[in-house]
Amino acid sequence: MTGKLYEQLVADTIRSIADGVLRPGDKMPSIREASCARRLSITTVRRAYSLLENRGVLEGRPQSGYFVCAPHSSTASEPLVMSCPEPVSSEVDVSRFVLDTLKAIQSGQVLPLGAPYPDPALFPWRGIAQRIGEVARRFSEWSALNDLPPGHPGLIRQIARRHQGQGLDVQPAEIVVTFGATEAINLCLQAVAKPGDTVAVESPTFYVMLQAIERLGMRAIEVPTCPHEGLDLGAFEQLLQRQRIDACLVMPNFQNPLGYVMPDEHKRALVELAARFDLPLIEDGVTNELYFDGQPPRTLKSFDKKGLVLHCSSFSKSLTAGVRVGWALPGRYRAQVEKLKFLNTRGTSTLAQMALADYLEHGGWALHLRRVRQQLMQRRDILCAMVSRFFPAGTRMSQPKGGYLLWLELPEGVDSLELYRRALGAGITVTPGRVFSNSDLYRRCIRLNYSYEWTPAFEVGFKRLAQIASSMANAVSKMG
Ligand SMILES: Cc1ncc(COP(=O)(O)O)c(C=O)c1O
After folding, report:
1. Which of 51, 61, 322, 445 has the fewest other C-beta atoms within 10 Å?
2. What is the predicted pLDDT for the residue at 410?
């Protein structure tokens, strides 16, 4: 699977329209011409064209062929830059929202646009299942608690190799295996700060960060964040001069939810700023493997000379979330994180670690990732085109450079919590902007997951969501 062939044709057509190569009213090549030119079967081209027609991208005219439609709305391409006041305590029970969304998705009865993980169907679960089966038969190796922290040596070696392949010189002795990136972030935070301390985060930030800070009795302070380049370094430096900050949690690559990549000069500057203030930086790198421009992005860790960067990652976004295996590269805090890992959960499932180590050694992960990146890029293009076409005029969206998440800012007055509720009532999940901040700044934003295949059922659900958003926007504009 290099992405399904019809999906590729759909994505290419949408890209050509976005680039202006195809304009409204242009006639498309006939099904036969397209089939010859692209060496695709007639059925594949027909399926792609009819999907594009259902999506309102093409119009089929009897006896004449297919034509490019005019766009439905003019949608800008980036969310606003938002300023960020002092955080207020949240009235939204974030954990409740997230858990309810996950349970709804697990039921298989709802459209998973609100899913926090990429579509599991993208991953080579058969290969992983096979390794788990093989490893499970080696009972004497996994039955006792043999893999005390830092973790299984075979897996640690594979993680080090993976980082080295991305240009980050990591030695096995630096790694602590954890129960997903969630545990890595929690342990790192505990290693560098204590209850009552203040932790700086991006605004908006991924809710796991806010939950970890809250759970540990710390205080979050949100730093203004540019939707293209990340943390506003000028504002952050002023904050550091003004008040004590004990740690900073950041996601410089394919940030969740905004999708940006912090430019390398900014990464360097942030690490230098942290060094000046002796500030630990906890870096979330869970989606670093899901880049679209052919090159892995650089990490903050790669600029770190003082051991102040604690890099956290996992296999949840690039292989499978089901095994719950992650890791930390805690720099100068390694000993504390290892000890905390032991106190927290003693170890991570030996069976899961051994199976992953086996899979990574023999399973063709690099090839698999190449395919996944291509599919995700195509699906991003499709969702962006669909949002432009069907969401209410005035909707703005991010331009993710990797990962699988799109951030939308809806027209003034549309409340994303209300949208979340109405959508869920219609069998559709979305993630409301409210859970990404302790402030109320993202009241009209939502996060969508674009990693799922565009089946006809998906299409119907998406259009229904756009309809709900449009009717809410219309109601607001009438009131205004
Ligand atoms: C940005 C980010 N960090 C961390 C996590 C947690 O990852 P894990 O499932 O490995 O605990 C997630 C999961 O959704 C995430 O999106």
Report:
1. 61
2. 95
Could you tell me the two tokens for 361? 């050694």
Distance 316 CA to ligand 1 centre (A): 7
Q: Ligand 1 centroid vs 182 CA: distance in angstroms?
A: 6
Give per-10-residue mean pLDDT for the chain (480 aa): 73 79 88 91 91 83 88 54 52 72 82 94 91 90 83 96 91 97 97 96 93 92 93 95 96 97 98 98 97 95 97 95 95 98 93 94 89 94 91 93 96 92 94 90 95 91 96 83
Please tell me the predicted confidence (pLDDT) of residue 74: 45
Residue 40: how many CA atoms within 13 Å on its side-chain side?
23
Q: Would you state the pLDDT for residue 1? A: 38
68, containing H or E segment = strand 65-68
Residue 315 Cα to ligand 1 middle (Å): 9
Burial class (CB in 10 A: 0-12, 13-18, 19+), 363: middle
| Strand spans (E) along 35-175 | 58-61, 65-68
Domain match, 179 and 322 both: yes
CA of 377 to the centre of ligand 1 (A): 20
Tell whether ligand 1 has an atom less than 6 A from the beta carbon of residue 181.
yes
Task: Supply the CATH number for residue 468's domain.
Answer: 3.90.1150.10
Question: d(Cα 380, Cα 452) in Å, to the nearest integer?
Answer: 10
- Ligand 1 site, residue 385, Cβ cutoff 6 A: no
- If one counts every other C-beta atom within 10 angstroms of the C-beta of residue 56, the result is 16
Q: CA torsion angle for 314, 113, 203, 312 (degrees, to 10)?
A: 0
Atom of ligand 1 minimally distant from the CA of 315: 10
Structural domain harbouring 26? 5-68
Q: How many alpha carbons fall within 13 Å on the CB side of residue 384?
A: 25
Considering the domain architecture, whether residues 213 and 319 belong to the same structural domain is answered as: yes
Best residue among 286, 313, 448 to mutate for probing ligand 1, ranked by most atoms within 8 Å of CB: 286
Residue that has been written with the tokens 């958003």 in this structure: 469
Q: Evaluate: CB of 178 within 6 angstroms of ligand 1.
A: no
| Nearest-10 crossing angle of helices 94-106, 207-215 | 130
What is the model's pLDDT at position 393? 92
Rounded distance between C-alpha atoms, residue 166 and residue 118, angstroms: 22
Candidate from 182, 213, 255, 312 with most ligand 1 atoms within 8 A of CB, to mutate: 182
Q: Are residues 174 and 269 in the same domain?
A: yes
Say yes or no: 320 and 393 in one domain: no
Q: Which of 206, 253, 319, 449 to mutate to test the pocket of ligand 1 (most atoms within 8 A of CB)?
A: 206
Q: Are 9 and 45 in contact (CB under 8 A)?
A: yes
Environment class of residue 62 by beta-carbon count within 10 Å: exposed (0-12), middle (13-18) or buried (19+)? exposed
Q: For position 201, what pLDDT does the model report?
A: 96
